[in-house]
User: Which sequence fits this backbone?
């Protein structure tokens, strides 16, 4: 499906299908990654998986999936459609032909612009997903905070500490968005956006450029298109390279987004990095290697 020489709609459709598939397959692993990055008390990945299963059954792995399923499909569609059409726009602008092969400089520019664009859509999506995934830990943190700050010094049992339902539990993505807007304002939906820029601008650059290189290397000859299996392999290899470098900033982003309003721990991106290193030292790198969508 093509509307002009430089703009194509099928790139958006392909991105939408890929986004839906990635959410269904990857959300359980993403839940484990988020708990490891932002929660406390997990010894390792296996311990986290077993703890979630014992306390929340299988449904715990899919907590907060409805919103990503509805939104990440749109997000992926926008990202991949924007990247492909930006490539064609740059080629058309520089060479007068939207089908002209992009240089490495062209690919870098298209990738960086895609990373910036992705933050405007992806920051609220990630925030709501993480808040829904982490609300069990957030409730515990708020209870401990209130119980430990009683003005009369009374020793109150944890279960007796009451928090308004709006603060202690999100009924779903719409209620989560409404709660964030009421308590933190519009800027609350973009908490962690700075860290997301640091993640996505280099992250997408280190994804799309290796992807293009691998596709060229796996192509039988210069005149033919890559085999679907070659495209799949190129995407997997490029994704691995991207997330090895992007996951440290993803940890910072996740921690800032999971930061509860009543128990705010981090003042900003730099404070989050310094605090994480000071409190966990080199061990904070253990959180850098968890799977990501």
Assistant:
């Amino acid at each position: 499906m093509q509307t002009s020489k430089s703009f194509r709609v099928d790139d958006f459709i392909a991105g939408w299908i890929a986004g839906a598939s990635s959410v269904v397959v990857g959300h359980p692993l993403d839940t484990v990654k988020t708990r490891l990055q932002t929660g406390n008390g997990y010894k390792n990945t296996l311990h986290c998986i077993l703890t979630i299963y014992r306390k929340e059954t299988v449904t715990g792995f899919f907590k907060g999936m409805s919103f990503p399923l509805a939104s990440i499909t749109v997000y992926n569609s926008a990202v991949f459609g924007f990247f492909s059409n930006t490539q064609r726009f740059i080629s058309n602008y520089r060479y007068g032909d939207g089908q002209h092969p992009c240089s490495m400089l062209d690919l870098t520019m298209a990738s960086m612009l895609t990373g910036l664009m992705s933050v405007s859509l992806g920051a609220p999506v990630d925030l709501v997903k993480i808040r829904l995934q982490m609300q069990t830990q957030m409730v515990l943190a708020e209870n401990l905070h209130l119980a430990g700050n009683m003005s009369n010094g009374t020793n109150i049992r944890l279960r007796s500490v009451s928090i308004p339902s709006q603060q202690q539990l999100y009924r779903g993505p719409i209620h989560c968005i409404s709660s964030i807007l009421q308590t933190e304002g519009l800027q609350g939906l973009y908490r962690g956006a700075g860290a997301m820029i640091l993640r996505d601008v280099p992250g997408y650059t280190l994804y799309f450029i290796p992807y293009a290189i691998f596709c060229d290397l796996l192509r039988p000859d210069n005149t033919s298109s890559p085999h679907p299996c070659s495209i799949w392999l190129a995407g997997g290899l490029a994704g691995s390279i991207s997330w090895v470098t992007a996951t440290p900033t993803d940890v910072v982003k996740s921690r800032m987004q999971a930061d509860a309003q009543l128990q705010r721990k981090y003042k900003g991106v730099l404070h989050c990095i310094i605090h994480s290193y000071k409190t966990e030292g080199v061990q904070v790198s253990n959180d850098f290697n968890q799977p990501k969508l």
Summary: The radius of gyration is 21 Å. Residues 104-147 form the longest helix (44 residues). The chain has nine helices and no strands. The chain has two domains: 7-148+168-181, 192-292.
